[in-house]
Amino acid sequence: MKMRYSLATLTTIFSLLFGLAGLGSTQENHQEMVLIPFGEFTMGGHGHSDDGAPSGFKSVFY
Amino acid sequence: MMEHQVVLSPFFIDKYEVSNKRYKTFMDATGHPAPAYWDDRRFNKPNHPVVGANWYDAKSFCEFEGKRLHTEAEWEKAARGPDGRQFPWGNSKPTPEHANFAIDWKGIKSLRPAGSTPKGKSYYGIEDMAGNAREWVQDWYHPQSYLRGPLRNPKGPENGILKVVRGGSWHNGVNDIRVPSRGKGGFALKTDGIGFRCAKDME
Fold first, then answer.
1. For residue B201, is it within any domain?
2. Domain for residue B189, yes or no?
3. Contact present, B76 and B182 (Cβ < 8 Å)
4. Residue A44's pLDDT is what?
5. What is the pLDDT of residue B176?
6. Does residue B105 lie within any of the structural domains?
7. Residue B57 contacts A, CB cutoff 8 Å
8. H-run or E-run covering B165
9. Which CATH number covers residue B75?
10. Contact flag A38-B8 (C-beta cutoff 8 Å)
11. Do B22 and A30 touch (CB under 8 A)?
């Protein structure tokens, strides 16, 4: 039996296949990056604190 | 530390902390030694953030991926957003749905897989910036480095012994997972509470 698909259908199928594959890859490897735009922001303040000690302290060379 | 305005050029930053799976790719390709805790079942699932890597390990990994460690200022902007938040998600107190940190809650207190608390993502959509693993940043530590550096793209002191770590870990209480809270550690320090993520300039 011959099956015919329109270009739009094929495009949709490929988009789904490769789109989902790409999404899965991103989630699995956690390699996605986010763009932080140019601009000014407020640093410090708000009870800025310095806790002084690193987390963990298992094998310390401090 | 006094509040002050800083201007940063645009940059890219990892949405998630570097996972063990990503780190293994680096080890396999370069022969770089395994970090501490690599064989510890509490921390070595592929999607756990890699911990037990010192600052130089973190720097080497980011360079392997064609990236770099972010500066302290870049970390703070990515976590704080444009509206000066106390926590990445806003100003409400953290719950276990926002962050993995040291409070009494149901379940086992330990490191969790990257991206386990999406409700705690920052204004820019970045995850795990409070709790889980603390993060190495590029800057050397100085208590007043904020006030000494330039107000445009500050990179911290020229040298030092301690490096800045930000974000608090699964060991820390509420105060230390606030965005303005700073931590520090020797550059060779390897703990089960410190991981990292990478950044890249916008070309």
1. no
2. yes
3. no
4. 77
5. 87
6. yes
7. no
8. strand B162-166
9. 3.90.1580.10
10. yes
11. yes
Question: Whole domain around residue B70: which residue ranges?
Answer: 11-194
Interface test with A, best of B11, B111, B134 (most A CBs within 10 A): B11
Nearest Cβ partner of A51 from B13, B126, B183?
B183
Q: For chain B, how many structural domains are there in total? A: 1
| pLDDT, position A43 | 84
Do residues B189 and A55 touch, judged by C-beta distance below 8 A? no
Residue B145 lies in a domain: yes
Q: Which helix H or strand E contains B26, and what residues bound it?
A: helix B20-30
Half-sphere exposure of B101 (CA within 13 A, CB side): 23
Q: Which of A45-49, B17-21, B37-41, B142-146 has the lowest mean pLDDT?
A: A45-49
Record the pTM. Answer: 0.83
The answer to whether B16 faces chain A, any CB pair under 8 Å, is yes
Q: Which of the pair, A3 or B127, is modelled with greater confidence?
A: B127
pLDDT band of residue B136 (cuts 50, 70, 90) is: very high
> Nearest C-alpha of chain A: how many angstroms from B162?
8
CA-CA-CA-CA torsion sign (B165, A55, B89, B85)? negative
* pLDDT per position as a tens digit, B59-87: 999 999 999 999 999 999 999 999 889 99
Length of chain A: 62
A6 contact B CB<8A: no
**Would the pLDDT of A7 be above 90?**
no
